[in-house]
Amino acid sequence: MDKYVTIEEFRELRKKLFTDEHPHTLGEYEGVQLDSGICEMMDELKSFKVRADDCWIVSYPKAGTTWVQEIVFCAMHDGNLQEVNKTHTKLQVPFLEHSMPEEVRRLKNLPPTHRIADEMPSPRVIKSHLPGQLLPPQIWTKKAKIVYVIRNPKDLMVSYFYFENLLNLKGAGLPFEEYLEYRNSNKASEGSWWDHYLYFWKRRHQPNVLLLRFEDLKRDLRGNVETISRFLGKALSAKTLDDITEHCSFDNMKSNPMINPDYLLSTDERPGRSFMRKGKSGSWKTHFTVAQNEAMDALIKEKLHGTGLTFDH
């Protein structure tokens, strides 16, 4: 994307997006609630040309996407951190379904993101929050590598709650109790978290799919950096793996303007609010009431019953 815009220009476009009248509205595509702008592009995305040497990072939002994206991008570049830090990761890893509104893109003659991805050299790293059934069909026929990330849905609720308020998205302004009801329904943006999770959980043994847990990354980042590297066919040295691990620690990522979305999305200009908030497991314990926790446990049990997918309490 940096072929079309500089970091500074991208920031200005984002400011234009936030200050003009561009309300976030939802539409429906094949039964899934998506941003209306995404719905308009979905038919075209069905014919997106996937390459066998692609690596796709896929997740439900706020499951750890930015974290895993940076690990994958570092591994794909053999741990060359100087190269990785040349420009912001958002300009190097296309977010397939997310493009700015046409009137904003027109200011810099910026194509939709998926068309920019078409022009990128191989091997590409691409990310998406689309549920598996809405991804470009060629992702399955070309057997591109897919790294899928899941997170305890309770922590996901908390992180998503703050994120939607940060960017004034559909769920912004709701009290946390009402937000839980919204996010735990089939009317939530991006669809239900359980359907999103289970689509990939059922495919976790396919050789081109690597399923990761946010909590495991927190417990053993170095081990998961090595697992991801091997999945990508990389035999990196211990020193390189150590360097990637340090580079991808939460504190280093949050302080790195070439990684933290705050800098590129202009959210760093809102004191006390951040895209990369805490990066912790178990934050739900300070947000859920006893009743909310019991209701969430019951929902998790109902939706995941018989699948083998469980989460620590």
UniProtKB/TrEMBL annotation:
It comes from the Eukaryota. It holds the Pfam family Sulfotransfer_1. Transmembrane segments: none annotated. GO terms for molecular function: sulfotransferase activity. Keywords: Transferase. InterPro entries: P-loop_NTPase, Sulfotransferase_dom. Residues 53-308 form the Sulfotransferase domain. PANTHER family: SULFOTRANSFERASE SULT (PTHR11783). Belongs to the sulfotransferase 1 family. This is Sulfotransferase domain-containing protein. It comes from Patiria miniata.
